[in-house]
Records
---
Amino acid sequence: MPDQILNWGFLSTARINRALVPVLNASPRNRLLAVASRSDSSAELYALEWKIPRSYGSYERLLEDPEIDIVYNPLPNHLHAEWTVKALQAGKHVLCEKPFALSLAEVDAMSTAARESGKVLTEAFMYRHHPQTLKAQAIVNSGALGKLQFIRGAFTFTLNREGNFRLQKEMGGGSLWDVGCYPVNFARTLVGAEPLEVFGWQDTGPGGADMVFVGQMRFEGGIHAQFDSGFASPFRAFMEIVGSEAALNIPVPFKPGRNEIMHLRRGESLERVKIPGQNLYSGEVEDMADAVLLGQPPRISLEDSRGNVAAILALLESARAGRPVDIPPNII
Ligand SMILES: NC(=O)c1ccc[n+]([C@@H]2O[C@H](COP(=O)([O-])OP(=O)(O)OC[C@H]3O[C@@H](n4cnc5c(N)ncnc54)[C@H](OP(=O)(O)O)[C@@H]3O)[C@@H](O)[C@H]2O)c1
């Protein structure tokens, strides 16, 4: 079916939708057909504002639309698993926002639903498809840094949206699930393996979710990673990848744009690695279309998503217990 146009439906009027609207509108293989919201009026208003042909006043009704091929799930984190499973069981392919799920049982239920329905399911970690991320992986894998030793990163911003789900623990809130998931994911991706042991500290807010998280991960072969995430500092994001011969600095690692530069430092010399980028969200949309239309495996496998959830759960357990936590080698 390579000539087919894939019809997308948004589950909710989430803020992040606006990043995908222009990408879907510009893609020859994809079309934004419908939006669902918890009320008719908000769905209708949203559809009018963003020129979306169909609107539904409940998520169920969108899933009942036989012309929807792909569901985009940008619900608050605690609803990712429930609505992804429902969408798969309704026969839809699903692109589910990060963090994929909040427990390994949820990941497994989502994977089972994908297997049983035969539909594509993958996580919307948009930065993973960007040329800068692929170039950083290629540099590490080429051995240009020497032996990989140390990875450092951060993702923080000031969260001042009162009542936002990110502040509520029971809704999957907390800076680690929200933005710390990026440096955790980048480090795992660059190492190409799961951490063996983690340690974390957290400061929690009134909703019980972490406002600040500081974490470390130990990988096989003497590779270590450290990161911080938070809602109480100004916007900061970086990744530093240190090998025995050289170090790669990525000043805009998680939301890269069209013209980014990474810095490769080897002794006294500094090389600027220019990245002819692309729209940050087009990669995940085209990856999904390749998976559905051409049968290609999505770039982010379900095992990969499971590994990220497992690492985050272990970090949270460590912060609660105040001790390092091992990750069993057979976690994936
Ligand atoms: N990849 C990225 O770049 C990126 C960036 C930002 C966010 N995200 C992810 O996208 C997801 C959404 O984030 P967001 O900031 O866009 O969310 P948001 O603006 O708060 O929207 C979430 C939507 O979920 C619906 N909803 C259903 N039940 C709800 C409940 N109990 N409480 C609140 N809302 C409820 C609401 O839509 P209706 O009222 O229309 O039903 C709401 O508008 C999160 O998982 C986040 O991690 C990803």
Note: The chain is about 35% helix and 30% strand.
---
Amino acid sequence: MSKKAEVITDWTFVFPNDANPYGAMFGGKVLAIMDTIAAIAAIRYSGRTVSTAAVEAVEFKLPIVVGDRIQTCAKVVWTGRTSMIVKVDVYRDRRAEEAPTHCTSAHFTMVAFDDDRRPTGVPPLLVETDEEKTDQQLAELIHQQAVTRRKKSDEGRA
Ligand SMILES: CC(C)(COP(=O)(O)OP(=O)(O)OC[C@H]1O[C@@H](n2cnc3c(N)ncnc32)[C@H](O)[C@@H]1OP(=O)(O)O)[C@@H](O)C(=O)NCCC(=O)NCCS
């Protein structure tokens, strides 16, 4: 039976040890936060342990600096047989009177595992709203690109 995905939201603070000497947060630290919430979204959706198989096209559009609050939102937007694509959005929050500003997005492909750490089936995603349909279409494109890339990479090694 198909299943609705929930949005997972988290907040954190940017401390000096998260940033370079000029105060800008390291991209790797942002990715670690994104990867964690993507895993939580995938675990909540599938009810399984998961592992990150791929991260697609991360663009750091705006800097996040020491003292910013970071809001991270994650949602499963596409499902295959054993894999799920989780869209993660990151916002910085500086001033209480302004809405958080979108800084970064990325799609994480997470694979669900059975108890023997073999890829296992996930419930098909229930897609209802226009936004969910658009997100699913983009994720399908990302999946197809990953399939093509893997095939070419395997051929290159053969
Ligand atoms: C991800 C992993 C489980 C895939 O194992 P595998 O033997 O290739 O398994 P499969 O070929 O059956 O692929 C399983 C699913 O993952 C997807 N997948 C595997 N590699 C992928 C990639 N590079 N990009 C996108 N999807 C990928 C497949 O499309 C398949 O999805 P589907 O069942 O929905 O069609 C395996 O490569 C692995 O354990 N990698 C290390 C993961 C890890 O440690 N991550 C943390 C970073 S250190």
Note: Residues 51-54, 80-83, 109, 111, 119, 146, 150 surround coenzyme A (CB under 6 Å).
---
Amino acid sequence: MLDFSKSKLFISARSPFARRVRVCFDEHGINYEEVVLDVFKANPEFEKINPLARVPAVQLKSGSVIIDSNSILDAFYRSHQKSELLAHSEREIVLNAQWSGIAVGLYEQAIQYYLETLRPVEKRDLEIMSECEGNVRRTMAEFERFIKGRAFITGSHLSQSDIDMVVAIDYLRLRCPEDWLAATQETGRYGAAIGIRPSFVRTKPPPPQ
Ligand SMILES: N[C@@H](CCC(=O)N[C@@H](CS)C(=O)NCC(=O)O)C(=O)O
């Protein structure tokens, strides 16, 4: 059993990968410290913790370090096998795995798009940007159909896949054009209901700089 209390979680204020772990820790009442980094700047001290210089990374009070949101969550849930956020049936396990995978893919698409927008207009790869747009619109249309009439992905209770999808919805709103989510009212209703939880309110990404 790994002990996550009194751990240090290295994050950046807007990272969706970090936020899925932050919300998970908050939902489980973990007492931990957040170390906020600017990942667009060199962080020599952090590179000693994670040579890849990526957030999230967690340093347990034992000194052990786990990097990558999937690895952190995997280790966390192995140590919290009675968590109410865990899937109870085969159907729930499949739904959770499916939508958590999709959520992480959405983070990647939004980041790829955002990084292009940081380049001077003439250097942007329009093919990549349009591919991201197509992938996000198609995926969100699929989620809109799926979530209609449901409060949670499993139908009955909050799971890590809900955390991951609501983090994705907020991150798309932060980094991508507004109209990509224009036709997703059911998604909006679902995100708003879960987004009022204190764990989401506390970790809400600040507006873009
Ligand atoms: N697969 C990793 C992705 C983490 C990631 O890409 N983090 C970004 C912030 S959103 C980062 O630290 N980027 C800085 C860099 O790659 O130098 C995870 O799930 O934790």
Note: The radius of gyration is 17 Å.
